[in-house]
Amino acid sequence: MSALYSVAEIRQVESTALAALPPYTLMQRAGAACAEQALQLIQSCEQTRQRLPVLILAGPGNNGGDALEAAQLLAQASVPTWVMLHADRNKQPEDARTALQRAESSGVTFIAGDSLAHLPEQRWGLVMDGLFGIGLTRPPSAKVRALIEHINGLRCPILAIDVPSGLNADSGSIVGGADGVAVRATHTLTFIGDKTGLHTCDGKDHSGTVLLRTLDTDAAGIKPAQAFLNGTAQFASALRPRASNSHKGSYGDVIVVGGARGMAGAPVLAARTAAYGGAGRVYVAFVDDGPAYDSAHPELMFRVADRVEFASSAALVVGPGMGTSRHAHDILARALESESNLVLDADALNLIAAEPALQHKLHHRSPPHGSGAPQSAIISIITPHPLEAARLLDLTTQQIQADRPHAARLLARHFNTIAVLKGAGTVIAFPDGEIVINPNGNPGLSTAGTGDILSGLCGALLAQGWSTRHAALAAPWLHGAAADQLVEQGLGPVGLTASEFIPAIRAVFNKIIRDHVQRPAASPQQH
Ligand SMILES: NC(=O)C1=CN([C@@H]2O[C@H](COP(=O)(O)OP(=O)(O)OC[C@H]3O[C@@H](n4cnc5c(N)ncnc54)[C@H](O)[C@@H]3O)[C@@H](O)[C@H]2O)[C@@H](O)CC1
Ligand SMILES: [K+]
């Protein structure tokens, strides 16, 4: 599993390693790793271009120290290396001061001055960002901002050391919000352990390809991770080939509950996805009179919600287009009282946000956290987007987005459920504090109806007997992989429509089942 660490955890690992090693060892390892990575990047570009100098921006702390150590190693390797220093020599930490002395006695060219006006007007083969790492505490100054904005406009590779400068390594938000700025790296070489903020919120747009160097530290041995990166390995144990001797009853029932008058499209999208996601039978239970059937998919069965029994064996997806009427409220209350695995989205979440009695029902569906019950006893998944999350937690959307991992943990703990906080780097949180960040997907998903599709897919997996954990991990991953595949085919991200994701999800799902399921080699056929 790919572990992710918080800054506090990294600091703990770092101080244990620093205490056990001779001075300057970690910085030497970090600088060497940066130089090696920079060489790899410039060599791959040099096949098409002549050797261009490397520009290194070195800040006031140890992030700058890593950059300066890398600078002297690149100079030693005969790479023309220019450094712009943003540090008061009298205030540098000891290791960074050592690194500066080493760089000064090597063949590095130091730029006189530290503002954009001092930067030589020339092309660079690579820019290394060693301005700030995990020690950033406030938005960069106006002078540094201008520099960051300038390098963000360059077309060469940008290698961020540890964290793109300006980004909060825990939350993935830009420090200072609209007043802040962050380096948009093509690559981020991160140290000791991978960090949550590189994979969610603004982290996705600013980190580029994330590469990890542990610097021979053992983070997992010192601090068991509480956060992970999603991938097929996280739910591979749920992937099974279908038995030939099976029937529709083998793959379960999904009941999508929603579709108030004038909003029939949302539950139909969820239901179509549930069918394409492999559920044996799919029903739509309309809050009000819905259409008679889906002419594009007549296999879907349409009912009136009041007349549908929520059997415990069915997976319920409640909320798409449901509205917030009293009638919708009562149907939701009945669903919350059922023993079915339940996915709650959209208006179901808005209704819950508005009423403590519904919140109480949701909380008590699963055994309380700390009761010793296994994670598999959790029978609810909520799939809010940031605005729905804000309503549920009585916060603003900005507050949710300022720290998505924290917000997802709050949701899971507060409602005693698995919480899937949608957005760039969807965060899946469990009541015990564990989070998993989903790295795939793209802005093609930023269109109406994709949330309905995610909830329908969750329902399909639950109907097929998947645990809530596996369904909550697999659904965002398949959703994101489908979006990536559509973009690769040239169909997005601009203008993708929710319906197009449905067959793409089916294709991706079948492919990963094929790829992951080990089948015994067939015996040669006898003729
Ligand atoms: N100590 C070591 O030997 C190691 C340090 N490492 C590197 O060190 C980094 C952490 O070093 P630091 O704790 O020194 O932190 P940083 O290098 O991230 O920066 C901290 C310094 O920047 C200042 N600062 C913060 N925000 C500022 C702003 N907006 N404008 C101007 N100054 C600002 C702080 O006052 C402090 O002086 C890691 O990200 C990593 O790159 C790693 O190489 C591992 C080894
Ligand atoms: K940096």
UniProtKB/TrEMBL annotation:
Domain YjeF C-terminal, residue spans: 231-512
Chain sites annotated for binding (6S)-NADPHX: 62-66, 133-139, 162, 266, 321, 385, 452
Alphabetical list of Pfam families matching this protein: Carb_kinase (PF01256), YjeF_N (PF03853)
This enzyme's EC code(s): 4.2.1.136, 5.1.99.6
Family listed: Belongs to the NnrE/AIBP family. In the N-terminal section; belongs to the NnrE/AIBP family.
Protein's job: Catalyzes the dehydration of the S-form of NAD(P)HX at the expense of ADP, which is converted to AMP. Together with NAD(P)HX epimerase, which catalyzes the epimerization of the S- and R-forms, the enzyme allows the repair of both epimers of NAD(P)HX, a damaged form of NAD(P)H that is a result of enzymatic or heat-dependent hydration.
Name by which UniProt lists this protein: Bifunctional NAD(P)H-hydrate repair enzyme
Protein species of origin: Herbaspirillum lusitanum
